[in-house]
Amino acid sequence: MSTPGRLATLQHRDFRLLLFMQLTSSMREPTLFITQAWYVNEAAAESQRLLMLGLLSGLRGAAFLSYTLFGGTFADRFPRTRVLTISHIVGLASVLIVGGLLTFPAVSNGEGPWLLVMLVMFASFGLISGQDQPTRSAMIRDSVPAHLLTRAITQHQLVMSLALLIVAPLAGLSVERLGFATTYLIAGLGHVAVLLALTRISSRLASDPDAARESVLSNLRAGIAVLRTDAVVRWTVLSTWGVTALGLSVMGGLISAWVSEILDLDASGWGVLVVFWGIGGIVASLWLSVRSDVRHIGAGFLVACVLIGVAVLGFSLSRIVIAAFLFNGMVGFSHQLVLTFSTTLVQRQVPNRLLGRVTGLLMLAGGLMQIAGLGAGLLAQALGLEVVYSAAGISIIVLMLVIAARQRPLREAT
To answer: What pTM did the predictor assign?
Structure first.
């Protein structure tokens, strides 16, 4: 049997549409993330900046955590196209409301109670992501044959890195030149693009139609049961949670403070920093895509997790801007490997009828990361940014070396 071409996945229209949705969503999400964080960074009093950034991260994370398990369950229980359509209509409405509020000077300056009000409004970002991310990820299985699954996942992640590379500098420039409101509203076009693409997707059936005969909580328990019975899935999910909560809580939630206080850069400089993350992600995805097949996925996943810790530690010790940019690119490289390997392990191990639920569990990492950002903000306020960043890197390295030593099924997973 001949090996399929590297672009064989593009012969499937649903997958091409899924890549388009990944592109537009991966441009929308960083734009909103950067706009929200820089708004808080500018509007908060200097003595409260780290605390407010941590609170923003915590609120978004709480919203994501409170919904993503149900989001994954709905992705199995109902047609995934219908679920995505509803979530992006709600997301578009949220962007229009928040962007409209930011047009008022008192709101854009965070005067009076408006900073706290906007922190709560920004939390809707977590709710929308809690439905969107597990659903689109689960749709990869629906869009290509099984023998193309690994390649499709790699290409799906590659598009995310490409989008980040495009949008990161533009988002920072847009905030500086056009302001918070206009940048926020422009990002809403991503919702419109996804809604248009969804009208062309051919797969319209629920992956687990029998789930509707049971309660949503029963559906959810069926997904959680996979973690109890499958050691590879369990430790893939738990490792992803740990690495993301420890590493991305500082590299995401507190990064605007590091950019302005340690590196002495503005929003445009932050955009360039994010570009290096995107370049790292692209290099990782291209390296994976040129391989005919990826073997030893479990071992590769563990190495990538350790590499994140090394990169975060290196970043924490860097005071030269270019060195910080390079270590940030290293974090992007290793994080992209973690995303691809973890998604591949889950999609290979889990039946399609349960895939939305287990993918939702895997993606709880994003919410845990933002909740951890609140704790990181409090610690940074008390101990200093440099201490918290270094501690995060060391903790990841130690945690993943222990897991790698003790979890043979994950080490040997293919």
So the answer is: 0.80
pLDDT tens per residue across span 158-176: 998 888 888 878 888 898 8
18-58 pLDDT tens trace? 999 999 999 999 899 889 988 998 899 888 888 888 888 88
Per CATH, the number for 11-411 is 1.20.1250.20
- Region of 112 (left: φ > 0; alpha: ψ -120 to 50; beta: rest) is left
What ranges do the domains of the chain cover?
A: 11-411
